[in-house]
Here is the input.
Amino acid sequence: MSVPVLRKARIVRGRSIVLRNATTTDAAFIVALRTDESRSQHVSKTSPALSDQEAWLLRYATRSDEAYFIIESQTGEAWGTVRLYDAMGDSFCWGSWIMKSGAPSMAAIESAMLVYSYALDHLGFAQAHFQVRKDNERVWMFHERFGAARVAERDDEYDYSISHSAIRKSMQRYSRYLPEHVAVEN
Here is the structure.
């Protein structure tokens, strides 16, 4: 059995939203989102300089070990970001999951469903792992309701793992958020 590999996709199209590969043209949106203290308090700090974000996105474009997406409406309105990275065997990590103020509430659950659909059905991963800051109660409660198990903790973070069966069970439970076929354009 081959080990899955993280790959970028140009587009991952869901029912109401699209995950679109991030490019340098998204730098201003990303900086605004990641420097908005009300939205980014639970993610690693980033430079407020647009040139630094553009440089990071240029480096990202040359790497083959992660996928960084802009979460947007079907009409192209940017609502957030999400990133897949840190592949270890058949497990992938995901994070940098931030939604802007005013994004529809369904965008969060649908983006999570698209992340899992893309990783399992298109890339071949079987499970996921990730960290959530302890004070980010809404997000760690979301993951626990989705079936993730808390496997460790540090001073400020919980570590989670979610099995293939737990992901599939939740994907079935929340299937109304996904189309019958998730389209991926490379």
The mean pLDDT is 94.
